[in-house]
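G., the chain you wanted modeled:
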Amino acid sequence: MMFKKIILFCGMVMIGVFAGCSALDHDSKEELAADFVGAAVDGDEEALWEAFAPDSQRELILMFGEDEEQAKAEILKAVQEGLVRRYQSGSLEKFAENKELFQRAIQDLLGGSGEKFVEIDGKWFIRH
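Predicted structure as tokens:
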């Protein structure tokens, strides 16, 4: 039984890879915000990076000496540290365990300036 589950999982992963499926839901600002915070908590550098609009990605790369990998790593670190500091959780693990803080971070990302998000070809992205 376990072998069948592993095969099924591997098949789903391969379908996602070959279909070009995204780890993020870009269909709405709300889903993108939730996935963005989740990616930061999970340490998923690629998913976090994918949340940014292409022009924001280019600007961030330039900020880090045209080194995309360094930009991704620094952005992940900055977002994680920002979550811990802003929500005074003491650690990323404690932030992740606190569903109320997690939801508040999503709402804070969605609130305020409407310029935080941009819609491109029917998909939502975050501007830095």
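Residues 1-21 have pLDDT under 50 and may be disordered.

Shout if anything looks off.
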